[in-house]
Amino acid sequence: MSTHITKAVIPAAGLGTRFLPATKAMPKEMLPVVDKPAIQYVVEEAVTAGLTDVLMITGRNKNALENHFDRVGELEATLLAKGDKEKLAKVNFSTELADMHYVRQGDPKGLGHAVLRAKMHVGNEPFAVLLGDDIIDDRDVLLSRMIQVQLERGATIVALLEVAPEAAHLYGVATIEATEEEDVVRITGLVEKPAPGTQPSNFAIIGRYVLQPEVFEVLEHTPPGKGGEIQLTDALQTLAENDIAGGVFGVVFRGRRYDTGDRLDYIKAIVQLAVDREDLGPDLRPWLKDFVTTLE
């Protein structure tokens, strides 16, 4: 088994129905967040953490994802002829980011099923899973820390975020025990989207995982759960309660996370990222302040 993690899996087969009609003909992962598609932020995060072998789990009508990370000769030639080196560099950057691979999920049977589709590509080594709805601010460290903890403990690692009690039912929620490290907890149980008021804690799983390859065998025997889908959370529960392949630990994240899977949070993410940009922030911040004064 490899001791150095190089592979990232990005499930991107969802229909994006919350963003219809914008996602009728365009994958939700290609919706722009300021001036980059949401999926590019996720791939960049993987590459920054040293994961240059990226497998994207796609579905029908997702060709735009492959096109975005591929060469566009005509566009490159046009920009070169115009001498627009800045835009050409941006186009080439996404093309050269990572060694990209693609496989279709086929039947939409849930996140666990999507991860299982990566089995042949990943093989018998630990790997990361990054969900495209969560963008982690590149000024805050999460995935690199999770990889470090995985290498130290030889276990499955998930990212945890403390959420408001009234929001816990929207997530997979963990039962946790403290460890000798302040930002690391042992996970003894997991439940997917518990009924309001029944959650075992306020620590929710967000879309970053570093998984042991044993998860594939567990997923193959995991029956459909919440929503009739094969839930990754259920497989993680099996790993945790049976202490399989080192069990499951959580890295508690207290940095900036932007949720692009909800329409309102998507708008907030754009504003939050834009105000901190050197090229946009100086003009946007005073405009926002003036605009807020016009609101009742």
UniProtKB/TrEMBL annotation:
<dbReference type="InterPro" id="IPR005771">
    <property type="entry name" value="GalU_uridylyltTrfase_bac/arc"/>
</dbReference>
<dbReference type="InterPro" id="IPR005835">
    <property type="entry name" value="NTP_transferase_dom"/>
</dbReference>
<dbReference type="GO" id="GO:0003983">
    <property type="term" value="F:UTP:glucose-1-phosphate uridylyltransferase activity"/>
</dbReference>
<dbReference type="GO" id="GO:0006011">
    <property type="term" value="P:UDP-alpha-D-glucose metabolic process"/>
</dbReference>
<feature type="domain" description="Nucleotidyl transferase">
    <location>
        <begin position="7"/>
        <end position="272"/>
    </location>
</feature>
<protein>
    <recommendedName>
        <fullName>UTP--glucose-1-phosphate uridylyltransferase</fullName>
        <ecNumber>2.7.7.9</ecNumber>
    </recommendedName>
</protein>
<comment type="similarity">
    <text>Belongs to the UDPGP type 2 family.</text>
</comment>
<keyword id="KW-0548">Nucleotidyltransferase</keyword>
<keyword id="KW-0808">Transferase</keyword>
<dbReference type="Pfam" id="PF00483">
    <property type="entry name" value="NTP_transferase"/>
</dbReference>
<dbReference type="InterPro" id="IPR029044">
    <property type="entry name" value="Nucleotide-diphossugar_trans"/>
</dbReference>
